[in-house]
Amino acid sequence: MRLIRFEFEQKKFVGEINNNVVTQWSEMPWKGGKKLTKQYRLEDVKLLAPCQPGKVVCVAVNYPGATGLNANAERPLVFIKPSTSVIGPNKPIESPFDVDQVWGEGELGLVLGKRLTKATIEEVNEAIYGYTIGNDVSCENKSGWEHHLAESKCADTFCVLGPWIDSDYNPSNKTITSYHNSLLIREGCCDERLLKEPDLLVWISSWMTLEPGDVVLTGAPSRVRDRVYFKD
Q1: What DSSP character marks residue 31?
Q2: Which of 41, 62, 104, 142 lies at a 20 to 30 A Cα distance from 20?
Q3: pLDDT score of 145
Q4: In angstroms, rounded to a whole number, what is the distance separating the alpha carbons of residues 60 and 81?
Q5: Average pLDDT, stretch 153-177?
Q6: pLDDT digits (tens, 9 = 90+) for 74-101
Q7: What is the dihedral of CA 50, 54, 57, 58, to 10 degrees?
Q8: Are 221 and 97 in contact (CB under 8 A)?
Q9: Helix H segments across the chain?
Q10: Helix, strand, coil fractions of the chain, as percent rounded to 5
Q11: CA pair distance 90, 46, nearest whole angstrom
């Protein structure tokens, strides 16, 4: 199922896409939502971020060739993007900083359907509702000393999610590619990640509680060319 959030006549709804038809849901499935009978044409609705995560947990240095990864690495890096950074597909990314070096990193994201804390592998496998796409937007560290990347990573509009959550997706042996317009900038295989689910979520949940609706972005594959920056 491809689950979305959408806007119609200035009201926001949850729904699922089948071909070009959107069928409304009463609420998100992990909140007890049920499928309704009301339907819309896909072309008539405005797609929003497919969920409203309390937090977005972002993984870095998780693919071969990633900056900083070495043969002795056992775990990737982790940082948080706030819910206020989340926007939906086709929304404008607006940098609040007077720097020209702002860029995007396309990543596979997973969406939690159950609460995880100190989870087992079995609990993790049951808790993943589905997968989405994330654009981890970043800007050059203007101050030069901001160690935890909050200013570079957490600005409003710096986390693009969507267009949908695919509850049937299996990332095994899938290629992930990122384009800047038509220019290929990153490419990798999901199987090559240093930590992937379920082990990734077992580790994260051992020290951080993950809630239903939270999103985990699983890292950007390595670059195939020099970094390309956004322009107006």
Answers
A1: G
A2: 104
A3: 64
A4: 12
A5: 97
A6: 789 999 999 999 999 999 999 998 888 9
A7: 50
A8: no
A9: 121-127, 150-153, 199-205
A10: 15, 40, 50
A11: 10
CA–CA gap between residue 173 and residue 25 (Å, rounded): 32
Q: Are the beta carbons of 47 and 163 closer than 8 angstroms?
A: yes
Half-sphere exposure for 216 (CA within 13 Å, toward CB): 31
Mean pLDDT within 208-229: 96
Peptide bond before 198: cis, by omega within 30 degrees of 0? Answer: yes
8 A C-beta contact, residue 101 and residue 140 = yes
Between CA 89 and CA 199, with CA 82 as vertex, the angle to 5 degrees is 90
Q: What global pTM score does this model have?
A: 0.95
Q: What is the CA radius of gyration of the chain?
A: 18
Q: Is the dihedral of CA 141, 144, 149, 151 positive or negative?
A: negative
CA–CA dist 61, 76 (Å, integer): 5
Give the other-Cβ count within 10 Å of 86's Cβ: 25
CA separation for the pair 47, 191 (Å, rounded): 30
% of residues, the chain, pLDDT over 70? 95
Phi, psi of 88 (to 5 degrees): -95, 180
State the maximum Cα–Cα separation within the chain, in Å, rounded to a whole number.
54
First and final C-alpha spacing in the chain: 35
Please report, as a single letter, which amino acid is at residue 86. V
DSSP 117-170: SS--HHHHHHHEEEEEEEEE-EE--SSS--TT-HHHH-STT-EEE-S-EETT--
Quote the pLDDT of residue 148.
Answer: 60
